């Protein structure tokens, strides 16, 4: 390990690694540990440039008997997970920003001071934070490869590290913590790291709720308490009690796009689970408050509510506890299919909030502010953020499914064939029906199973409190009629509930036309009367990158946002942009602070929605300290982008990006879409075929089971390339674009000017740099040598690697660096530390893939499991995998 790595991080990696070694020795003997050390030694020396060690590593792995393959893969996988724990612990302890870049650590106190110096009054700061609407949307994309039972053990290991570090003056505590650490690592080693069955959408939702229970429940009031203290210092006042700058929504159990497992029944069950868990968590708070608020001094309002009793706060809380208990019992009865015969339940947020507010105001009125601003304030903050449902559940469905409903309906009613109508005919029909008072859908309509499922989903909407639901997202939206159709179905079937409707623009063509579509939509009086002065639009990152290549997609996303901001400003509509980001660069991933500040000026105007998916939920929100820091980063970035927005790009920079994107797009499409050898190469050299068997999430890996790359979901598409370390989706095309520009006189100077002065371009280069640092063309070549026979496919692989090398060289020129990650040494060191443990997994994976193919997929259960573990281990080692 590099001597520059912070001492505490190095020590913790050593502590965890030594403990794992002892655990493995106890289980399999010291001889097996010697094998692991031999493999690691070859990998380490190979990374130091010793080609003989690289060859010996591969030969050693290929000679391993079948019985050793699974325990070897498990050993390296387990170490990488422990290294992640150590790094996560380091980040939480030292409050490092997620990109570890010196000088880029956003601190709210510093930002508030900068805003004040820029002319913003203290009142403006309070108003901006109080009015901020940042919604983090938890999604269950299948990249979280670690089982929940192991995550719980890893969290407990983190607690042990804290105890060991704080035991200097109490050595006996350190000894106890070390013993517990050994026990937990042994438990983890003896636990199967691979699920045997795919999680259901309900399982995924439970996992999301567990993150709230175990981490966010504590982190949310801590975040608000820190914010209050800063504002008291800077402006002399707290946040308003009902302010919730950061809230949480979820797609788990609501995202039905391409996932037949998400049904109306599942959505209803997940909503009830949220109600049950919210009641259960609030009961714990209320019991604590009932125990603590034993005061007798109260104001007249509280006395009027509870009468002349000796402990008025406890009396009011006792009544509230009774209703919350009834709510929990009601939700459980509904889940079990039983009738509920208890007392009145809590239906909405205000019914829980109002009694607590009465207590708070009474305490303040009688001079007990210190007590009011203690545990009671924390509970009020939780109610403001989580409500009585924990999260708002978004619903997502593909536009074609709504069109199918309308096609069947118009055919049934003898009105013609909806799908054959022009866009104008569709709009005229939909607007007329939206304005009509008569029902459109017959009471006994015998529609298809697919259409019945769509209708049933809207029936669930009709039975829910509006605050339980978030936004209705339409994927593959392309026309105003796609939005109007959902509005009509909501009116016809959704009762009195009217959810915000967000079209999702996710292909290059859709992004290029997004502004035009929203302009036409907002110009329709019937639509404006329906939605008022607010519009949400979702920008797709992963599918646009798969469709067009990362550089062209990033520029199309930026331009689409610029246009949408201008269109909504012209129509007098408040725009909320919803960013469908993933964890990887190829899916719009990257440090949140840099990503938000690189958006077009005006696009982050106090409001933002963004997806947090799979493994990134655990990395950002899995522990209270990390979650607290992540929320601070989001609040910092959105406040800065709102009060101190970045400058608009110069005209010449825009023209530059147009040229770069055109070249990159042409190069990307020329390979991915037009080269007949590309799809066969992709399927031969990556574990894409085996990936479908890994029980990662509830969603199928493909939208359709036939066809090429276009049918593959963006997540497995990127996951497969990450496993081979070529990382192709995030860089293909960029090298040609930059190299051609550097051939022009003055080209380098222009690119470097954009790098230094335009946050969008600088952030793009930072992400590309990190991606290239994690890639490894030598490993990619090994997969090819082991798994590809056809000369044409080998020739394509050679071309792809030469393109990567070309980009590597030109990127260093643009960055004016001798090596990658010069300015982010901690990321570089984290990659270097992990490589000797990831490299053997690559060698084993390629070997297992070949054995699996030789056996026509009929390898033993242990070897199949070993293959799955290599995928999990590589994913853990590289962190942002899909």
TrEMBL record:
This enzyme's EC code(s): 4.1.1.31
Gene Ontology MF term list: phosphoenolpyruvate carboxylase activity
Pfam families in the cross-refs: PEPcase (PF00311)
Mitochondrion recorded as keyword: no
Enzyme class at the top of the EC tree: lyase
Cofactor: Mg(2+)
Active-site residues (renumbered): 141, 546
InterPro entries: PEP_COase, PEP_COase_bac/pln-type, PEP_COase_Lys_AS, PEPCASE_His_AS, Pyrv/PenolPyrv_kinase-like_dom
Function field: Forms oxaloacetate, a four-carbon dicarboxylic acid source for the tricarboxylic acid cycle.
Family listed: Belongs to the PEPCase type 1 family.
Subunit structure: Homotetramer.
Identification of the protein by name: Phosphoenolpyruvate carboxylase
């Amino acid at each position: 390990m590099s001597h520059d790595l912070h001492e505490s991080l190095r020590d913790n990696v050593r502590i965890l690694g030594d403990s794992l070694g002892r655990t493995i020795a106890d289980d399999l003997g010291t001889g097996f540990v010697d094998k692991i050390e031999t493999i690691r030694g070859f990998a380490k020396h190979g990374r130091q440039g010793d080609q003989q060690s690289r060859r010996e590593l591969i030969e050693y792995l290929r000679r391993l008997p079948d019985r050793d393959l699974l325990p070897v893969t498990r050993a390296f996988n387990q170490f990488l997970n422990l290294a992640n724990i150590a790094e996560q612990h380091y980040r939480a302890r030292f409050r490092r920003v997620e990109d570890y870049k010196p000088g880029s650590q956003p601190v709210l106190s510093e930002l508030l001071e900068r805003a004040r110096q820029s002319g913003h009054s203290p009142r403006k700061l309070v108003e901006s934070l109080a009015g901020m609407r940042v919604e983090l949307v938890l999604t269950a994309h299948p990249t979280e490869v670690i089982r929940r039972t192991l995550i719980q053990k890893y969290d407990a290991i983190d607690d042990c590290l804290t105890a060991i570090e704080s035991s200097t003056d109490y050595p006996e505590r350190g000894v106890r913590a070390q013993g517990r650490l050994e026990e937990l690592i042994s438990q983890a080693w003896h636990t199967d790291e691979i699920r045997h069955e795919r999680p259901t959408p309900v399982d995924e939702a439970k996992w999301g709720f567990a993150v709230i229970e175990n981490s966010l429940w504590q982190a949310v009031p801590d975040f608000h308490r820190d914010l209050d203290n800063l504002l008291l210092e800077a402006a002399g006042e707290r946040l308003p009690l009902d302010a919730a700058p950061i809230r949480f929504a979820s797609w788990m159990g609501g995202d039905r796009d391409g996932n037949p497992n998400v049904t109306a029944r599942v959505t209803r069950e997940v909503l009830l689970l949220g109600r049950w868990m919210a009641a259960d968590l609030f009961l714990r708070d209320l019991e604590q408050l009932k125990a603590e608020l034993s005061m007798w001094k109260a104001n007249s309002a509280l006395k009027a509510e509870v009468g002349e009793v000796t402990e008025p706060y406890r009396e009011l809380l006792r009544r509230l506890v009774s209703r919350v208990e009834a709510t929990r019992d009601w939700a459980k009865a509904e889940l079990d299919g039983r009738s509920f015969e208890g007392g009145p339940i809590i239906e909405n947020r205000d019914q829980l909030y109002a009694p607590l507010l009465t207590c708070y105001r009474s305490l303040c009125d009688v001079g007990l502010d210190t007590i009011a601003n203690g545990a009671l304030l924390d509970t009020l903050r939780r109610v403001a953020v989580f409500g009585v449902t924990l999260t708002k559940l978004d619903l997502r469905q593909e536009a074609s499914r709504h069109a199918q409903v309308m096609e069947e309906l118009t055919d049934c009613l003898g009105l013609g064939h909806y799908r054959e109508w022009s866009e104008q005919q569709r709009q005229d029909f939909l607007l007329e029906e939206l304005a009509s008072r008569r029902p459109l859908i017959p009471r006994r309509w015998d529609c298809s199973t697919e259409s019945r499922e769509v209708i049933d989903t809207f029936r669930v909407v009709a039975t829910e409190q509006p605050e339980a639901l978030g936004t209705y997202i339409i994927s593959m939206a392309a026309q105003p009629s796609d939005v109007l159709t959902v509005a009509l179905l909501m009116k016809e079937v959704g009762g009195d509930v009217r959810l915000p409707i967000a079209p999702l623009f996710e292909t290059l063509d859709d992004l290029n036309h997004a502004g035009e579509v929203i302009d036409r939509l907002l110009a329709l009086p019937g639509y404006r009367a329906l939605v008022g002065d607010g519009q949400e639009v979702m920008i797709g990152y992963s599918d646009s990158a798969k469709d067009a290549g990362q550089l062209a997609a990033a520029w199309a996303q930026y331009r689409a946002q610029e246009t949408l901001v201008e269109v909504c400003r012209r129509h007098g509509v408040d725009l909320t942009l919803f960013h469908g980001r993933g964890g990887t660069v190829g899916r719009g991933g990257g440090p949140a602070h840099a990503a938000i500040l690189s958006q077009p000026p005006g696009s982050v105007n106090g409001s933002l929605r963004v997806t947090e998916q799979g493994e990134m939920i655990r990395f950002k929100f899995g522990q209270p300290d990390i979650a607290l820091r992540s929320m601070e980063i989001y609040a910092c970035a959105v406040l800065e982008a709102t009060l101190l927005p970045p400058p608009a790009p110069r005209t010449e920079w825009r023209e530059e990006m147009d040229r770069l994107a055109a070249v990159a797009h042409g190069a990307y499409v020329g390979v991915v879409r037009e080269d007949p050898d590309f799809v066969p190469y992709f399927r031969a050299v990556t574990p894409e075929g085996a990936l479908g068997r890994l029980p990662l999430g509830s969603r199928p890996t493909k939208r359709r089971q036939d066809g090429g790359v276009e049918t593959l979901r963006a997540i497995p598409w990127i996951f497969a390339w990450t496993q081979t370390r070529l990382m192709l989706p995030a860089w293909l095309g960029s090298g040609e674009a930059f190299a051609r520009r550097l051939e022009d006189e003055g080209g380098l100077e222009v690119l470097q000017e954009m790098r230094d002065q335009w946050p969008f371009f600088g952030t793009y280069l930072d992400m590309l740099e990190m991606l290239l640092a994690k890639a490894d063309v030598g490993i990619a070549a090994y997969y090819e040598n082991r798994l590809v026979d056809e000369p044409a496919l080998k020739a394509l692989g050679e071309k792809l690697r030469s393109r990567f090398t070309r980009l590597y060289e030109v990127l260093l020129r643009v960055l004016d660096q001798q090596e990658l990650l010069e300015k982010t040494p901690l990321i570089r060191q984290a990659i270097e530390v992990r490589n000797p443990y990831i490299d053997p997994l690559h060698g084993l994976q390629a070997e297992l893939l070949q054995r699996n193919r030789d056996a026509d997929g009929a390898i033993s259960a242990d070897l199949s499991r070993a293959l799955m573990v290599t995928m999990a281990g590589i994913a853990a080692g590289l962190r942002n995998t899909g």
